[in-house]
Amino acid sequence: MLKYLKKAGRGSGHFFAKLWHWFFPSADEIRWALEQSIPPDEQIEWFVREAKTPTHFRVAIAATNRHLVILSHFLIWRYYDFHPWNKLKDVRFTESPYHSKIVLTRTDTQKRVIIKHIETERGRLLAGHARKMIAIHEADKIALGKQ
Q1: Residue 33 in contact with residue 75, Cβ under 8 Å?
Q2: What are the domain boundaries of the chain?
């Protein structure tokens, strides 16, 4: 990796800046990617320019005449059918210690729809720790069985 960076004539700071930029794009870049992902026959009716969840994930939400498009900070977009748009009351973020959710509320039925489920860093760390402990436990069981 360092050999490649030296050949490119750039320091490792440039590499990490690019890496940061890839994982945490600006609101304008998110909007551009969102616009590129929407078919030409669909129009954006409203757009949440840059919303941050409590765990500071950048999320862009746009409604077209056919779909609800959500684009997260990893530049992954998803389409959801959520009609009618004019009945959409609000977009809200909720968070437990382990997960972050986008909740859409409809005014006509007062139903809440959980649209996106993002695992927080703490949740990921705990899941990784649990997997590691299970692996150690399994290895211990195998070792004890061989004695």
Answers
A1: yes
A2: 2-146
